[in-house]
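Tokens in:
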């Protein structure tokens, strides 16, 4: 099977040149490849957030310490045990 020049270039980048400091490059490439190169920066940002465990932990703290506490104190929500 003959691969296009673009495919070979992308494969080479992923296998040999991509530096994995974080999830950003593979998540962004996956978004472009699965959405036929039609993806907005907002969609990519949401993907980053959904994959970034440090951001998830950060927002869990906000939910539990701030917003959740206010709503629990007003008896609007109940925190279920884990």
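Residues out:
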């Amino acid at each position: 099977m003959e691969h296009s020049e673009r495919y070979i270039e992308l494969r080479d980048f992923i296998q040999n040149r991509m530096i994995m400091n974080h999830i950003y490059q593979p998540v962004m490439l996956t978004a472009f490849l699965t959405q036929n190169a039609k993806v907005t920066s907002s969609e990519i940002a949401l993907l980053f957030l959904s994959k970034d465990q440090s951001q998830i932990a950060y927002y869990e703290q906000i939910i539990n310490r701030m917003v959740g506490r206010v709503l629990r104190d007003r008896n609007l929500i109940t925190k279920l045990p884990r």
